[in-house]
Amino acid sequence: MMPRECENCGDYLSPYNVIGQRAYIAHIVPKRHIESVMVHPLNRMFLCVDCHTNYDNWLNKDIVKMSCWPIAVSRFDKFKHLIERDEYKHLRECFKELM
Ligand SMILES: [Zn+2]
């Protein structure tokens, strides 16, 4: 399932990475607190370690400028109806605006 390249910067994603391929799987909305889509197959992007760290830690205003943001939005649009109303508060602001 994993592409060869980071979905943000295009860097090569090595299947033999010592830290493991799991490091490349970025959850579009956090698994923590938003359990309704925790294991949804579209709730993920494949990002290199640097882009994954940025995606998880940057502010909303910077995330929406990332190359992978349109990918995140198009996948989010396909599973957002499954997110429970009481989980909305755990969404980042940039996703709340899309609900
Ligand atoms: Zn990257």
Record field, number of beta strands: 2
The helix content, as a percent range, equals 25-40%
Reading side by side through the largest sheet, how are the strands ordered?
1-2
- Count of domain modules: 1
Quaternary: single chain
* Overall pLDDT level: 94
Which key phrases capture this entry?
99 residues, mainly alpha, two-stranded antiparallel ribbon, 2 strands, 4% strand, binds zinc ion, HNH domain-containing protein
Please, could you describe this protein's structure?
With 99 residues, the protein is mostly helical. It has helices at 49-57, 60-63, 69-79, 93-96; strands at residues 25-26, 45-46. The longest helix has 11 residues, at 69-79. Helix content is 28%, strand content 4%. The model has no long low-confidence stretch (mean pLDDT 94). The protein is built from 4 helices and 2 strands. The protein is globular, with a radius of gyration of 13 Å. It has one domain. It binds zinc ion. This is HNH domain-containing protein.
Compact summary:
The chain has helices at 49-57, 60-63, 69-79, 93-96; strands spanning 25-26, 45-46. It has 99 residues and is mainly alpha-helical.
